[in-house]
Write a structure and sequence with these properties.
With 266 residues, the protein is mainly beta. It has 2 domains: 107 residues, no CATH class; 103 residues, Immunoglobulin-like (Sandwich), CATH 2.60.40. Helix content is 9%, strand content 43%. Strands 3, 4, 6, 7 and 8 form a 5-stranded antiparallel β-sheet that branches. Strands 1-9-2-5 form a 4-stranded mixed β-sheet. The protein is elongated and about 80 Å long. The two termini are 50 Å apart. Keywords: Signal.
Length: 266
């Protein structure tokens, strides 16, 4: 689904249309007859996290947040529908060409990245030149999850392995992945294969050092926690495990920031 609509509707035409559609009995007085604004419709398509998203206006198309110089921004409500606009007053920008972009804050840091779809064209296409006349500018932005892992932060996980309360040096640590996929059957399959040929089909994070710890750089999935039916799926909850005496010892680590400490104990 792609939508890209940018047009100016003179306010006088809107008022005439409203008057024609209203009866003399139930019509309401118009509070404001002079206005220049933009109604931005952010339409989510496959968007998993709706929080902390803003519509930004700038005089140049968005390229990166480090070089971005926005004029203003407005928060997008999480419960917004496809018929609800985010209204922005643009009266002070008469004569300027404005570019519109939807950016979302990183899950655990303060910078923003674009969630505006470029399927139907580049970000520079979402623009409007603000005229002197009173007008309402209608802008539709399709919002979707970025496909590039370049938008992901990295969390530094310090994982310590303890056995019976004592740290375990030189212990191989394995990364299974998302905890929602971990099952008892998988655990038993890993143990069976390990006893047969000593192999493990999951990524080794190398061994713990002398104090029983190691540092793992974990990509942060910007989708965060997603509601799927009646359950919540946390894309940043991971299972790590060690194998001691042919027994898999797992632990679940929730990545909640850019630096996390956790102990795998058994």
């Amino acid at each position: 689904m792609t939508m890209k609509i940018i047009k100016a509707i003179p306010l006088c035409m809107l008022l005439l249309f409203i008057a024609a559609c209203s009866s003399s009995d139930d019509s309401q007085p118009i509070a404001e007859t002079s206005d220049i604004k933009a109604n931005v419709y952010p339409i989510g398509v496959g968007l998993e996290r709706k929080s902390e998203t803003k519509i930004f206006l700038s005089e140049l198309p968005y390229e990166s947040y480090q070089s971005f110089q926005p004029l203003t921004s407005v928060e997008v409500p999480e419960d917004i529908t496809v018929v609800d606009p985010v209204t922005i007053d643009v009266a002070e920008y008469k004569g300027k060409t404005l570019y519109f972009v939807a950016l979302r804050k990183y899950l655990f840091s303060d910078d923003y990245y674009s969630v505006t779809s470029t399927t139907s064209g580049p970000l520079s296409d979402y623009s409007a030149t603000i005229q002197e006349v009173d007008s309402v500018y209608e802008v539709s932005l399709v919002l979707s999850e970025p496909s590039s892992t370049d938008y992901w932060d990295t969390s530094k996980l310090t994982l310590t392995v303890e056995r019976g309360g004592a740290v375990v040096p030189n212990m191989e640590v394995y990364w299974f992945g998302e905890s929602s996929l971990w099952t008892q059957e998988l655990k038993e399959n890993i143990e069976t294969r390990y006893m047969v040929d000593g192999s493990v089909a999951y990524s080794s994070m190398t061994q713990t050092n002398a104090d029983g710890s190691l540092v793992i750089n974990v990509p942060v999935n910007e989708a965060g926690e997603v509601q799927q039916g009646g359950t919540t799926r946390n894309y940043n909850s991971h299972v790590f495990f060690v194998i001691d005496n042919n027994v898999v010892q797992p632990t679940t680590v929730d990545i909640t920031g850019l630096e996390v400490e956790h102990t795998l104990s058994y």
